[in-house]
Predict the structure of Lipoprotein.
Amino acid sequence: MMRIPALCAAVLLTGCATTPPPLTPASPASPDAPEGARTPRKTSLGADAATRKTAALLSAAQKEQAHWDAYGPVSGNPDEEPKADAKPEMKHDHP
């Protein structure tokens, strides 16, 4: 049973003891290898028609939201806004 781990360790150490093959100048891992050609990339981050339409819709929604936020947290038309000094009536069920 002890022979299997010892054999594995011996195989691993033998692999580390051998020298790797030399790198040729044409190998990409070699420090003497020529640098790759640089080609200018076209940007893929340009806005297409769907992106422009979405941005226009979101901009319109943001303007509408800003208009509604100016009137506070009310539902309905801004004309139906309750007066700031009006207090709600409190009703109690007990006598």
Q: What stands out?
A: The two ends are 91 Å apart (CA to CA). The chain has a mean pLDDT of 78.
